[in-house]
Amino acid sequence: MLDRAVSMNISVLLKAADTPETAQDCRRRHIMEAAERCFARSGFHKTSMQEICAEAAMSPGALYRYFKSKEAIIEAICLDERQRCHGTLEPLLVEGDFTEAFVDMAMAYFEQMRRPGATPMMLEVFAEGLRNGAVGRNFLENEAMVREHISDFVKRAADRGDIDATVDHDAAIGMMMALGEGIVMRSAIDPALEPERIRAMLAAMIDAVFGRGKRR
Amino acid sequence: MLDRAVSMNISVLLKAADTPETAQDCRRRHIMEAAERCFARSGFHKTSMQEICAEAAMSPGALYRYFKSKEAIIEAICLDERQRCHGTLEPLLVEGDFTEAFVDMAMAYFEQMRRPGATPMMLEVFAEGLRNGAVGRNFLENEAMVREHISDFVKRAADRGDIDATVDHDAAIGMMMALGEGIVMRSAIDPALEPERIRAMLAAMIDAVFGRGKRR
């Protein structure tokens, strides 16, 4: 039952991401990308709507037709991120090797976070998660949803006997999410974290954390 | 030769941290803590000197005697962080079990990052590392120095035959630093990452990444 719920949830989000883009969507995306560049330069709090207008090369009147406030732009970017993020959870739905599926998901997530502006945006949003605002709550909800999907995936693997059922699953999932977020952050400053250099290590770490047999 | 260089470097920093605090130091620290709370609330860019004065309950005249600018306060906080950070590298100097030393260092780092304001500050500083300013450069230098200390520690262990010499050490160190930074970030929002719940997992992950025998 959980499987189906997870699967439906993700496919709805994937479907939303696949819908063809209208001229209006395109314009919105143009503004969101301009805003992301501004946020990367000077953070959410300091960026003004005027700066976003300048970066998007649009008049305030034109821009306000799409977004009423900076907060509305941030919200739209976060929703977008959320859809992309859920897309990367797809490998968890395939019945197959636990570690392979986990690694595939992580790699899809890293790939998605390589687009310019994604990492600074993630840091901003994470910082907001530690504060008490709408953006922070949105982020924490998304984190909780991702964690739930991974948790279901882990439970199914434990039920099948694929992983050690006695392992502290919550802590193990927390460690893997910490590793994933840490890799995204560091990739921007650490050239050693190229996908092909870390793939096998990631698999070995997953095996270690979930009490699977040593693979090397 | 490397050992001695690392050892001296760290002991100089530890000595600096041990020096008894004067009344002036105490006042500076009071201002720095007030500034950290402001940065946690609204970020480096938006925080003004007036806000820091209000938070520290000091007049601008009094505060300016200690710090000429917001940038000078940030720099002082970063230097402080740097000294604390180097203190946590001490376990790497003890000749003993590779994984135990690594875990002890990580745990000391997590402990140090538990003080209020440390995680929001780390996110701000990391975001600055992706930008092109003085704070960012300072942060990147510190990262490079920590990496060098860990790298020396890994080289010595490889020379002794304690870890697999054929492992991609740079990628392995990058993975461990990513994990450490990710744990610090997530600890603020994920109660499963308590020290006692993750210690054994961390050890298993280090063993896996550095090609050491399975310990469970």
TrEMBL record, chains A, B:
Gene3D superfamilies: Tetracycline Repressor, domain 2. Signal peptide: none annotated. Keywords: DNA-binding, Repressor, Transcription, Transcription regulation. InterPro entries: BetI_C, Homeodomain-like_sf, HTH-type_TetR-like_transc_reg, HTH_TetR, Tet_transcr_reg_TetR-rel_C_sf. Residues 25-85 form the HTH tetR-type domain. The keyword Methyltransferase does not apply. Residues 48-67 bind DNA. One of its GO terms (molecular function) is DNA-binding transcription factor activity. This is TetR/AcrR family transcriptional regulator. It comes from Georhizobium profundi.
